Amino acid sequence: MSLLTSDRELLKSFRLGEQGALERVYREYAPAVAAFLVRGFTFGSKGRTLQFNGYHQPFDLDNAVQETFVRAFGERARLAYDGLNPYRSYVMAIARNLVLSELRRREVAMSQLVRVVDEGQAPLDHLSQSQVQALSDGPCEPTGEAEFLRQELVTLYHGFIEELKPQHRAFFIARFEQHMTQVEAGKQTSLSHMQARTLEKKLRKRFLSFMQSRGYLEGYRSTYAMATLCLMML
Amino acid sequence: MEQGCTSRFTSLIDQLLVEDLSPRKMGELHGHLSSCPACQQRYNRVVLAARLLDGGPEALKDASQRELDWVGQVVVERTRLVPDSQPARRGVLRWVVGLAGAAAAVAIALPLVLSSGPPTPSPAAGEFATRGTPAKVSQQVGVRAFCIQRQKAGVEPVVFEASSGDPAAAPTCEVSDILRFAYTNKSKMSHLFLVGLDRKYNIKWYEPHPPKRNSIKVQQRVVDEPLSRAVSLRVNHEKGPVRLFAIFSSTPLHADQITQAVAEARRTRAPLERLRVLPLDDTDQRSILINLAPR
């Protein structure tokens, strides 16, 4: 059973808009909504099946998750939820409608996120004909720049780990790659909880400095990356 | 492109890699991000780095729990500030009467009605006509403000005409009241900024409400379209006159432009009673003076 259908007290608090209930519902459903918005979905328009490719830029994704839940937590939406059907489906429908209304509103900016899957489906009329025409012109896949950026980031990440002292490296891997708690990662590297906490903050700061010093956060390496990519394609 | 992201926001974004921001700072950052492509780019890079740090290379494509927690802070804050984030689709009077029924309220409408005659020239407007098309009082747009008093039972809503500027004749709300709005737009303007200004030129942000910083989109060819925002006058308001400005524009205005315009108006020392428009080019404006009385 889903959270809100199995806990009637929570449902009542949720409908009243109590902060604790909203936070609990958000934490339960936000990962699924985010995954849905990354993965994308198909929809019909004027006889064609279109694919929304999903949000791949973190800001776009976070913004869409935020807007979905602001809509879902609005008074009318809270009260409109029947408490019988799974809330997951309800909030996914809100996310889907949000994306479709964004597609209608910002057809040019969103055109890269949509592609035609099938020309021959029955019309479902989610979008106007003019919007469909514009949407079908965009590229289908995430850009090479985005992929190159990810590769660059992973390379930097490995470079950072290599620079660490053995004890710090062992803690880093235990904590961040093996997902141990601070206490567990500390124990494995002979550190007290306090020392582990201090080290984690220090490593985070050091990671930030490392990324800043490599120009990753400034964006110029993006230009460099694109130039390199173009050269590779020649 | 990077020039647009100021050091303050750069620093806030980078801090996300080290630790979580307070809800207030997170809200401020998200409000800024929506209008700053340079900061969005940096945010994207920092978030990817944070995903990598917290989950390793396999976690790059999906939002991390930490990232969703940041968003969650903003969601809860926005939900708390806007009890009903969806605009009401009912008529204004039904909306007001509904409130009266539910809360034994009396609503006092402070209308900025569309005028059939020529607009009243603004004594202050001429002082700002320096570039572009100066701001003007428009016949094509209007805003109604409703003071809703929760404590007076069994009283029908009362409508007052807008004041001509004399604070003694201005409609009065109590500082314990709630203010709500409806707009009319017969122009081609597509965006609205709604602010209040008190005697000390302190700005009250109504629509958009922080952390949002850009004008809200409004419909065209509508009359008395309700806005969802409910303003509790107990918060950030004191007794005395307040002038409400409805600023319609064809492109979104940013809060910084409003702040700058208010600073410019302040420099001219124009009293609230005469300040019909704010010095913002290419805008259609209506304003009304109200008095806030102690409860």
Overview of this protein structure:
- The complex is a heterodimer of chains A (234) and B (295).
- Chain A is mostly helical and 234 residues long.
- Chain A has two domains: 3-135, Orthogonal Bundle (Rna Polymerase Sigma Factor, Chain: A); 144-233, Arc Repressor Mutant, subunit A (Orthogonal Bundle), CATH 1.10.10.
- Chain A is built from 13 helices and three strands, in the order H-H-H-E-E-H-H-H-H-E-H-H-H-H-H-H.
- Chain A has helices spanning 3-6, 8-16, 19-39, 58-72, 75-80, 87-105, 107-110, 129-135, 144-163, 166-177, 182-188, 193-213, 220-233; strands at residues 41-45, 48-52, 114-118.
- In chain A, strands 1-2-3 form a three-stranded antiparallel beta sheet.
- The model of chain A is unreliable at 121-141 and 220-234 (pLDDT under 50).
- With 295 residues, chain B is α+β, with helices and mostly antiparallel strands.
- Chain B folds into two domains: 2-81, no CATH class; 92-293, no CATH class.
- Chain B is 27% helix and 26% strand.
- Chain B contains six helices and twelve strands.
- Chain B has helices spanning 7-15, 23-33, 37-55, 65-81, 92-103, 255-267, and strands at residues 106-112, 136-137, 141-149, 158-159, 172-174, 178-185, 191-198, 203-207, 216-217, 222-232, 240-249, 283-293.
- In chain B, the strands form two sheets. In chain B, strands 2, 5, 7, 8, 9, 11 and 12 form a seven-stranded mixed beta sheet that branches. In chain B, strands 4-1-3-6-10 form a five-stranded mixed beta sheet, with helices on one face.
- In chain B, helix 1 (7-15) runs parallel beside helix 3 (37-55) and helix 2 crosses helix 4 (65-81).
- Chain B starts with 6 loop residues before the first helix and ends with a strand.
- The relative contact order of chain B is 0.16.
- Residues 83-132 and 153-166 of chain B have low confidence and may be disordered.
- At the A-B interface, helix 3, helix 4, helix 5, helix 9 and helix 12 of A face helix 3 and helix 4 of B.
